[in-house]
Write a structure and sequence with these properties.
Blueprint lengths: L5 E5 L3 H14 L11 E5 L6 H5 L7 H14 L3 E3 L9 H6 L8 H12 L5 E5 L2 H5 L2 H6 L5 E3 L3 H15 L5 H16 L5 E3 L2 H6 L10 E3 H14 L1
Parallel strand pairs: 1-2, 1-3, 4-5, 4-6, 6-7
């Protein structure tokens, strides 16, 4: 039986894409090379900034994302994944431009959290400013009467500094400490769980320890969804 081929719309950022691939590999039950998932990857760091586009200072990345999706379909992908939360602001445009399924990281995260914590009412969200401003996650989680707690303006700036430090390979212990303090404040404001909803934060998620509530990583959840689809 022919196995499904995954197409990855990547490069946002490059390390986050490689980390996503690593998550898929580690989540795959395999005894040999042939047991792993066939991935076609467009790791394109030239995609215009999603954050700048949403905040009004840059061009839309939608045309590039659509072209990447169409290329991956042409190259033989059976379904697509986008390891960038903010890029899902353009999810409908990408989905409508191809004839193969496109996984949705936001819906995957919502479904996983509700399956594990069906009575949860408040989640702390760590994401880019663009993801927060557009209410990408809020709109989905609010359908299930779940409130999302986000950092205040000063804290959100620190979250962005952490994200760009990962992109630039300049992460320091001070960045990690800032993130721990922000998480503690989200929990103090009533968050019953924390959701890492930026793939740069997913890269460092395991470095953030001693959190006293459940922690969910959207990229890890998406990777496991890929494995479920291909391996059953």
């Amino acid at each position: 039986m022919t196995k499904k081929v995954l197409g990855i719309i990547g490069g946002m950022g490059p390390e986050a894409t490689v980390d996503f691939m690593d998550k898929i590999i580690k989540a795959t039950p395999a005894k040999d090379d042939c047991d792993h998932i066939h991935m076609l990857v467009d790791n394109n760091p030239q995609v215009p900034s999603r954050v700048q586009a949403i905040l009004g200072s840059g061009e839309s990345p939608a045309p590039v994302l659509i072209q990447m999706a169409q290329n991956l379909e042409k190259w033989g992908a059976d379904f697509l994944a986008i390891p960038c939360n903010t890029a899902h602001i353009y999810y409908s445009e990408i989905k409508n431009a191809v004839n193969i399924p496109v996984l949705n990281i936001v819906e995957s995260a919502r479904n996983r959290i509700l399956s594990e914590l069906p009575h949860i009412k408040k989640i702390g969200l760590l994401a880019t400013k663009a993801t927060v401003v557009t209410k990408l996650y809020h709109n989905v989680f609010n359908e299930d009467n779940i409130d999302l707690v986000t950092p205040d303006e000063e804290q959100q700036q620190k979250v962005m500094e952490v994200i760009f430090a990962v992109k630039a390979n300049q992460l320091t212990n001070n960045h990690l400490q800032d993130l721990r303090e922000i998480i503690s404040q989200l929990v103090a404001r009533g968050a019953e769980a924390i959701l890492f909803a930026c793939t740069e934060l997913s890269v460092i998620a395991k470095s953030i320890k001693h959190i006293n509530v459940p922690v969910f990583d959207a990229a890890q959840i998406l990777a496991e969804e890929v494995v479920r689809i291909v391996k059953g």
